Amino acid sequence: MSIKQLPQDVIDKIKSTVAITSMNGVVDSLLRNSLDSSATKIHVAVDYAKGDCSVEDNGQGILPTEFQSDGGLGKLHYTSKFPASSALYGCRGDFLAALAALSLLQIVSKHVDRQTCNAILLHNGRVLYRRCPATDEQRLKNFEHGTRVVVRDLFGALPVRVKQRALASKETTSQSKEWSELVQKTAGLLISWPSEVTVILRDTLGDRELRLQTPPAAASLTSRASTVLMQALLADSDDDTSWVPVSSRSRQVSVTGCFSLHPVPTRRSQFLSLGIQPVENVHGSNILFEQIHKIFRASSFGLTDKTANLSQPEGWLRDGQHRKSADKHPMFYLRIETSGTGGTQLSEDHLYAGDSQILETILDLLQAVSYGFLKSHHYRPCKVTKRSSDPPSSTPRKLLRPSGQSPTGTEVSKSTRLATSPLHSGQRPSSPFDGWNRIKIGVASTVPSKPTMSKRFGKQRLLGANGTVLRRPFQDFPTEFEDELATGTGNRPSWLPSQRDQIVQKTCEPKRARTSMPLQEPRSRWLADLVKAWENPVFEVAEQSVPMSNAGLSYSSGEHSHHWTSSNAEATLLNSAAVGLKRRLHKDALAQAEVISQVDKKFILVKLPTHHIDEADTKAENTLVMLDQHAVDERCQLEDLLAGYFSQNATGSYVANTECLEQPIAIEMSYEEAALLRQYHHHFQDWGIMYTVPEANGVSAVRVNSLPPSILERCRTEARLLIDLLRHEVWRLHDAGAEPSQFRGSSDSTSNHHPWVGLFRGCPRGVLDLLHSRSCRSAIMFNDPLSMADCTRLIQRLSRCAFPFQCAHGRPSMAPLLDLGTEPRPNAWTGEEPVEARRARWKTWLETTS
Question: Which segments of the protein form a coiled coil according to its record (predicted)?
């Protein structure tokens, strides 16, 4: 079959699905069109179940000539907003054409300087009728002039979207998510719009209505932010005295805005804009928002015990973030503007795909205003510096001030002015050793140097000028080199450095390039530093390994291999470095573990049978393993708690155990949080948390009546933990916007010994934290003496665990020390050589390695 071009209507639909992805995106774009037409009042109605929406405004309206067949209304790449301006949203002329290709679109408008009202109806990109003038039924309903856009059956031509829309209409959670997203989008538009405007949002299916009205244009930015967020139910109060104005400026970019002193449990109250264009934080992955979050996470902002720790030095919070309550996120609005752009709007596409110099400057300014706000209000942020001036290193530098040291005025001023001038990505430190904490010095070797391989055979070319082979390859190994390796004297070859020299050389020598080609400078040094310093929120970067001797070096001992030579000793001592790579520890081997002793009242030394990684069928060899006694008992305690969390009912299904409280715990919740608790009460009921939420317009008193026995006592004595558990979970579910995972009541675990493994999917994070905390508090601690019987029982309990190799917090609970082989190494001492000779050889080996 020949290749043919798609029909034009199919091409239009494909392009439209890229420009339009959701109902909220349609309403957002229609709101932008209304604001561009200088509207001061806008009425919005949505019906998510049917895919309908309507937007009516009192703007200037559309000229009657645009409704004629030769007009540009509804045509692709026709716009009245060209050339682009920083005071307008649209300039591409593709939205209405894309919307007409995916829905039944009706546009009715009356221009402010005309007497007639006109209408046009489009479906699948085709004009069904033009009414000039429009009929009485089609005229504007709320205003004397302006525009009304009605969208019917959005995505009706796409069966998969129609099916998804029908399924979503049956879920209250999905509708609430769409409504919350629409409110947040509208609030972001109104905060960044400089003029006074009123928007009324109405959900025809859910009977919800919200009125948003911005202050006059002369109002301060703090007043605008506090008013809009309070009306959008994103803040508890419109008191602008709790909002602090901030600003920072460079020669090209300026950042102005405000932060709130009151933390909130969600990130929905955070807004950024490039001029009047809101910046969306999709899935929390925007680099601009993350720059601000990084500064706030490393501060005391949101701490419940803030006043009790004022004596701590700056930057102390790196290991104390778990003390933050559910209210830990800042509320802010920051406006980013550029100078010298010729009146054009700085878009996100240009920001991320264009010159990284502007993005670097914006990130530094956001860092500066965040640090300045936290510093001026005594939230003890970590000190920040310019990324471009950092020396290159393999790990990001943690700029934490030592305990008890206060910052000087010069340092603070430098921190707050760190982005006042444009930065250069090509800057280099004055010395490559500036970022080194210390330099290790090795012992100079007195062994005379010998010619290297390249010097010995540099003149013996392998290939001739015409490509002929001049000599056989791989025969350039020197005879004297072979003789040195084959020596059976038992002494270390003289050409090999000592172990200490190897470690120092590996640590201090720079890596040599594998090719003679010169290394090219990266395209953007700043971008490389940014990627290097980025902290993965999901998987932590593995720590750099400790430099060690090469355990792979083994020296042939010839006919004296049965003696305890230096090669035997070195192989035994250095096998511990490679045991983690060559041996596999299996949890079944714990049942056969032989306890040797408790070590320092902290660890348990055992001997375990292990197998080679590549050869599973080989005979098991013994390995010395050190276990953390606290981590081992902590793991056993945790799995006992997890196994006892559920019980089987008469039908064989698993249900969470719950115990009624003698005195119910009363918790005061805001109206929005109480509504979320009512919405997700089935989710908490599946995990044994029973509560009642009375209907109220203001603050609601939630009564917790029943809790799981494993967390009941802790929640009863420390009610704050229960409050944080409930608030963290409801806001997590709400921000994620997805239905909570349904409790199946049956385990999907393949093991009958641990059915709880398949039951804890979707468990509230706070419940797991309480279980981990209880297992840690009740476990065996360091310096607790254990007898041999106690150690044996503890190892046997560990062998019955589902995950014996990690503690309750996910850290390793054991470490291999030494590979003993199939038989004990001391047997290698037996031989014909006298004991005195073996002792002398052992002392000689120690002297060469010291």
Answer: none
Q: Do residues 204 and 54 make contact, with C-beta atoms less than 8 angstroms apart?
A: no
Q: Which residues pair with 120 in a beta bridge?
A: 107, 130
| Percent of the residues in the chain that have a pLDDT greater than 70, as a whole number | 68
CA 193 from centroid of its chain's CA atoms:
31
In the sheet that holds 253-260, the strands lie side by side as 243-249, 253-260, 332-338, 270-274, 277-279
- E-strand ranges in 235-386 read 243-249, 253-260, 270-274, 277-279, 332-338
Spatial CB neighbours of 800, under 8 Å, sequence gap ≥ 6:
753
How far is Cα 715 from Cα 708, in angstroms, rounded to an integer?
10
366: closest CA among 339, 396, 335? 335
pLDDT digits (tens, 9 = 90+) for 527-557: 676 666 666 655 555 555 544 444 433 333 3
346-368 burial: b if 16+ Cβ within 10 Å, else e: beeebbeeeebbbbbbbbbbbbb
Beta strand ranges found along 658-799 (DSSP E): 659-669, 690-692, 700-707
Mean pLDDT value across residues 354-358: 73
Instruction: Give the torsion sign (CA, 529, 533, 539, 543).
Output: positive
Instruction: Give the number of C-alpha atoms closer than 13 A to the C-alpha of residue 153, restricted to the C-beta side.
Output: 10
Specify the pairing of strand 621-628 against strand 814-821. Answer: antiparallel
330 to each of 303, 681, 846, how far by Cα in Å?
Answer: 12, 27, 61
With a pLDDT cut of 90, the percent of the chain lying above it is: 35
Query: How big is the chain by its Cα radius of gyration, in Å?
Result: 35
- State mean pLDDT over 240-258: 92
The angle that helices 95-102 and 23-36 make with each other, rounded to 10 degrees, is: 140
Q: Who has greater pLDDT, 793 or 466?
A: 793
Closest CA to 723 of 775, 761, 731: 731
